[in-house]
């Protein structure tokens, strides 16, 4: 059928549809209208909720001081008359029913949905702008929170917590520490991986401060002798941040750490993170393999998750099914199915990984290997046609093998399954100052990469000592991260003191 003929048939069908609607209107003494290009406004459409309009097939679309016009597709539907009377009573207006065709009504529905979406987006933008303005106002008034101690007696605890959160967000802090001592409460932020004291609060506010944090985080108020975890979000206030809360009992009262998980943060690319060109080539070779395990190791705060996300960005394409298992989900990636661990519903890493393997994935990212079952399942998945990315808490690349053996993984599973181990730390970038008092802003990776050789894997299978494994790793091409760090010092990227701080 030609395009012109198809258009002609559509036009004839539409004309027939409108004639039928006109006939219905004439038979009932009502008006008929075509709504395709009607200038709808959301306040009038919203007199009746969108879900009611979709199900009942009638909608308000014109309003004057005394009258509201209602578009109706089927005037014979049961209960319509009473429902329209209820609308008239609610808004104290007279209703005028107008018959419209199905196609006309679909045009109204599309306009309603579009206007509602645009209004929601505008409201979200306004909320973000308002909250950003409030954040800046709070931050400037607090003078980096130094004056918060004097304001405690005249400011509510809720406002104090809001000020703390606002300033932490403004300063790009990753964590907020509320630490009770015998005499006072110390407030510290972790910025670029380093804790900085920002305020000293009087001890008498400690109970109220902790109680308020526990309330918003959904933590039990009456339990003060055990560790508890909770979380809350600032998204409803226009700030794209989820906050994970940890409370522990101490000798001076409960201490709190709040981790800020910014949803507006960008995961970045591998090239942005600070790897050398040679290291990037090694990582990309491993990512091109259709199966195997890539491990990223390091202590807490060494950027492991950020590196995994950058790897996922490189792998992300319509031809691959990529699944993740995380605790928590730190960045959202379009095109990747991300799952959140929920131990309370028996969905831990071990159970979750088994479930993900039943979803026909090409690539799986496991936020952390922390138990024997997860480790064994991940390594088996790498041997059976899946590319698995995971993190492991170890001090260096070679230590990953030692840690897996300590978890009870059978040595034979480590032979051929692990394609690459990335050991890393984050160092602060030097942006100014002097050699004695450098100024830092932002961080980047120093790393060591282990691509296991046959002799190295044989040594692992034979459970050789750590020194032997390290020697074989160097022979296989591993350059220690300390050397990578010193290359950055020579290039002026960071300082020797910073390298020594993170590598000990």
- Which stretches are low in confidence, meaning pLDDT under 50 for 5 or more residues running? 138-142
Distance between the termini: 76 Å
- Would you tell me the structural class of the helices and strands? alpha/beta
**Total number of beta strands:** 17
- Cα-based radius of gyration, to the nearest Å: 31 Å
Strand arrangement, largest sheet? 13-12-14-15-11-16-17
* Percentage of residues in DSSP E strands: 15-25%
Mean pLDDT over all positions: 89
Number of helices: 17
Shape: globular
Main sheet, how many strands, which sense, barrel? Answer: 7 strands, mixed
Helix content: 40-55%
Description:
The protein is α/β, with parallel strands linked by helices. Helix content is 41%, strand content 24%. The protein has helices at 3-28, 42-45, 50-56, 80-91, 102-142, 148-151, 157-170, 206-216, 277-287, 304-315, 349-357, 372-383, 399-406, 454-461, 466-475, 481-490, 496-503, and strands at residues 31-32, 58-63, 67-72, 94-99, 175-180, 184-191, 194-202, 228-233, 241-250, 253-262, 292-297, 322-326, 337-340, 363-366, 387-392, 418-433, 438-450. A seven-stranded mixed beta sheet has the order 13-12-14-15-11-16-17, with helices on both faces. A hairpin with a 4-residue loop joins strand 16 and strand 17. Helix 5 crosses helix 7 (157-170) and helix 14 runs antiparallel to helix 15 (466-475).
